[in-house]
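Data availability excerpt. The first of two example chains:
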Amino acid sequence: MSAKYHYGEDDMFTLKFQFSVSNGTVLEEIECYDNDNSDISHPLNTNDTCIALQEDLQRMYLYRVQTDIKLQCENETFQAHKSILSVRSPVFATMFQQDMLENQTGIVDILDVEATTLDSFLRFVYSGVVEGMDCEKASKLLVVAEKYQVISLKKNVPHS
């Protein structure tokens, strides 16, 4: 990834990111207006930007883009990213920062969660969304959210 930026006329700040991927190159250009040159973050906090980020992260999970960890549950293997799991869950962060077996092997065995629940949990970790919520799903997700200390999931699952 490379980034270039410059201030143009009328204090217009232009930021260009270039991401290279194995099947081509994607170029994104983000422009934002900055009166005092001290804080450029506020114009980028748009709903469209958040939605695009959410969709990109969902695709990373669904299409297993450059995964580096496997979560095994029942007879299924879910591929994921240590970095995303770590920023969303302090339990995973600790697991991957220490010299634990899971960090060495690249495999996390999750024995106490159903595969469908783990998939819903991971979809939430990547997107912030849980689809098809019912009481049974909510109660199972609350247990997983508690186990991995994903506070945002606990707040979004309805409590009965």
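And the second chain:
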Amino acid sequence: MTHHPLRAVDVLLVAAGGATGAVLRHLVDAGAPDSLLPWPTLAINVVGAFALGLLPVLAVVRRSRRVAAALGPGLLGGFTTVSAWAGETRHLAAEGHVGVAGAYLALTLAAGLSAAALGQHLARRPEPEEALG
């Protein structure tokens, strides 16, 4: 891994991306109906894992480490949330919903890892060759 000197603009780009991601996460949470299973956090984390795996397919991400940082650790880092997932799992278990907590834990892990792998797979696919005509 090549390390680049940290510059204030890099920190600001990641911060702006993180703030945007956090606002998007809040909007998803605020707009979701209440349910026993915290599906908004599940969906956020699965979509974020997929998007993070898919990021390298974007030419702008491949060309610019700053764009990659703003979108990866910035936007997607602010959007996804392990802390909310852990807190929700603990809360479910503490409220006596141990089975739901276990299922939520396993489902989030399995779906998140699968989504990230799918995103990475799609990012590595060769570009289709244009038909000769």
